[in-house]
Amino acid sequence: MTRARARAAAWGLLVLALASTLAGCAGAPRPGTAGQDWITESDEPPQRKRARTRVELASGYFEQGQLTVALDEVKQAIQIDPTYAAAFNLRGLIYTALRDPRLAEDSFQQALRLNARDGNTWHNYGWMLCQDGRYAAAFDAFARALDAPAYQGAARTWLARGVCQARAGQPLEAERSLLRAFELDPGNPVTLFNLALLLHQRGDDARAQFYARRLNNSELANAESLWLGLKIERRLGNKDTVAQLAEQLRRRFPASREAGALERGAWDE
Fold it and tell me: In angstroms, how far apart are the furthest CA atoms of the chain?
């Protein structure tokens, strides 16, 4: 499987109606240094280097979905260097994926006590709070991430904020955040999908069509995006495009839930 196809298969996990994890959006944690961002790897003492190696291993296991192994590695990193903020950030991500918000919050708060300027930790903490339904606190955390010095993850944070706002019943605010994410990263399939879905749910299919077509005309299209594109084009009365998308869905993803819904004519699923 190519990297592009693997990404296409995975990104659909993040939708407005089903946003149980934001691992792809959260990304691997960046190593922190307890407020000393000017320290380079060559300056690190042996203790920190050993802990960083463990965190890098844990990140790899986390990305592969091996959460228990990742947790074991990050616990060893913390034993080696209990002042390493990145280890607590990753531990928070792992506990978020394990659906343990109490331990996740403890981990993120400890990471922020060690390095309050780390935008990646604020982003990940914000997503955990969103999953826990604490929307006001989540929005504050996302704002802190965006305000963090030298933070390079603005696009993913605007995306996460938009998804969270949609879950909180704030569609207009969600649209603004998702549009900002699109401006910063116009090729992100998760942003394209969520913009198309949000606009479709609001009945603005003419605008939803732009984002759905941009996604479905790329190699990152998947069963969810094709099904959404079908519903948008059907509502707009574009029969030829509906037929083309239906053929793609049947041919490329015959065993998908969306292909089954198409065969049943279950357009409201």
Answer: 65
